[in-house]
Specification:
- By secondary structure, the chain is mostly helical.
- Helix content is 43%, strand content 9%.
- Strands 1-2-3 form a three-stranded mixed sheet.
Length: 184
């Protein structure tokens, strides 16, 4: 027999609260969410059962930039996995790319915060990288089928993505942060 006496239930709900901001205090956010829950579920017993409220406030601009950077960085590993280890290049982008990704993601999906950024990178950037890598793999003249071409990611202020090959080995990419051009 299973007992729920000592169980912890986590209730997650998107209350669609637009008054939450990165600057709101934790206590104010809890009060706001509890009031919103009471307004939404006033006719049920759900509110009486809630013991603890943990609000998730939107990310700051710096945190969003970290999300964009991490999403871009994971693309390197996805390219290696996608190519079954055949891609031996580097991936780079300029210093404005993360900010431009954030702006484009906010325009396309204003209510999704970090999810919008990761989706933009996965759909707009990754898919283009995979297409270019596929062509490079087909053209590879290496005996083992390896591709040493590296790629630079451009995202302009309008959110237009452009991926360009920039070399065959270990040269620095044009118009990119050389510190970001890591070798794999």
């Amino acid at each position: 027999m299973v007992s729920t006496k000592d169980a912890v239930f986590i209730l997650i709900s998107d209350l669609n609260e637009d008054k939450l901001s990165p600057d709101i205090s934790h206590k104010a956010a809890i009060r706001l969410i509890r009031q919103k829950a009471k307004d939404r579920w006033s006719d049920s017993k759900v509110v009486a059962l809630i013991e603890n409220t943990v609000p998730f406030v939107p990310l700051t601009d710096d945190e969003m930039k970290q999300v964009a950077e991490r999403s871009l960085t994971t693309l390197e590993h996805k390219l290696i996995e996608y190519s079954v280890g055949a891609w031996k290049g580097k991936l780079a982008w300029g210093p404005k790319v993360p900010g431009n990704i954030i702006d484009a993601a906010r325009r396309e999906r204003p209510d999704e915060n970090a999810r919008a950024v990761t989706s933009f990178v996965d759909v707009e950037v990754r898919d283009q990288l995979f297409e270019i890598l596929d062509r490079a793999l087909q053209k590879s003249k290496h005996l083992e089928g390896y591709v040493f071409t590296s790629f630079i990611i451009h995202v302009d202020q309008e959110g237009e993505v452009k991926v360009e090959p920039y070399g065959l080995s270990h040269e620095n990419p044009p118009n990119a942060n050389p510190d970001r051009a890591t070798e794999l």
